[in-house]
Design goal:
Structural class: alpha/beta
CATH class of one domain: Alpha Beta
Strand order of the largest sheet: 3-2-1-4-5-6-11
CATH topology of one domain: Rossmann fold
Shape: globular
Radius of gyration: 19 Å
Length: 295
């Protein structure tokens, strides 16, 4: 008799990363996803509405689902929002993450926490897992604090630092790519930074790394793309890949745009540790070509 698939609990299932992860994991796992304010139906996935800030509800959820693994993607991810509303954003970015890690540790459930490249200041790239953290904004500070508290409470946790992400939109959330493509198609002028560098990756390409971390990684792991590229270069690649010419892309500098949260100049991640474990994302061009919504 074939055994039932293992259960995977994914928090933030209605978010961009959570939705892509549900899509990828549902072929091998029995997926249970959580959502707070945007309930939705998803094939082969059980969706549970919950306020993760409610510790009692969080504990009850784990007791009811009894997952074989947990990947925590729920977060307040907008750096400007975190900068302007630090108390509210800390509740989800720090308190919830630490509580969930502790509950998983008590139950010996493998746990993955999704962190960010913004734990660095952008002056000493590329960054490996052993590089010193030095966040410039509140979002990065909250993720650093969460990492430290989680590893102290649950040292067997896998902490995956993620780069700028793009890809297929879910029913509720999208990445920065969708409005960028819409602007390019409309002929509107698009200003993109020439002095901000990242190692971007698609939601589809990063999910194997998260599942790999759940199975075989502990401690900090970088899951960046294989190419260092500026926002401006990324925009030109999008134009070329989807033949969106003529497109009105203008180079600009970070200092030309006033935002609440400071932006690090170069957050390129060294992901060789993950590569050695088998994480091998394709080129950015190939990832763009693989997108469902533009295929």
């Amino acid at each position: 008799m074939q055994s039932a698939p293992k259960k995977l609990l994914i928090t933030g299932a209605s978010g961009f990363l959570g939705w892509n992860l549900c899509h990828a994991a549902s072929t091998a796992w029995q997926v249970v996803g959580t959502t707070f304010s945007h309930p939705f139906a998803f094939k082969n996935t059980i969706i549970k509405k919950i306020d993760l800030r409610d510790f009692s509800a969080l504990k009850t959820l784990l007791d009811q689902v009894q997952p074989d693994g947990v990947i925590h993607t729920a977060a307040a991810k907008d750096p400007n929002f975190c900068q302007e509303r630090p108390t509210e954003s800390r509740q989800i970015n720090v308190d919830v993450a630490v509580n969930l890690a502790g509950l998983c540790a008590d139950r010996e459930i493998p746990f993955v926490f999704t962190s960010t490249d913004m734990v660095f200041d952008g002056t000493s790239a590329p960054y490996s897992e052993t590089s010193a953290v030095s966040p410039l904004n509140t979002y990065g500070e909250q993720k650093v604090l969460a990492e430290e508290l989680i590893l102290a409470r649950a040292p067997q946790t896998a902490i995956c630092r993620l780069p700028l992400m793009f890809g297929d939109p879910g029913p509720v959330a999208q990445s920065f790519l969708q409005p960028l493509v819409d602007q390019l198609k409309s002929g509107s002028a698009v200003n993109l930074f020439t002095d901000e560098y990242r190692t971007p990756i698609s939601g589809r390409a990063v999910t194997p790394g998260l599942l790999l971390a759940l199975e075989s990684a502990r401690g900090i792991l970088h899951l960046g793309g294989s190419e260092r590229i500026s926002r401006f270069e990324f925009g030109r690649l999008v134009v070329e890949t989807f033949n969106l010419t003529p497109a009105n892309i203008n180079p600009c500098l970070q200092q030309d745009v006033v935002m609440a949260a400071p932006r690090p100049p170069d957050l390129s991640l060294d992901s060789s540790k993950a590569n050695q474990l088998g994480f091998a994302p394709p080129s950015i061009a190939q990832q763009l070509k693989d997108l469902r919504y533009l295929s």
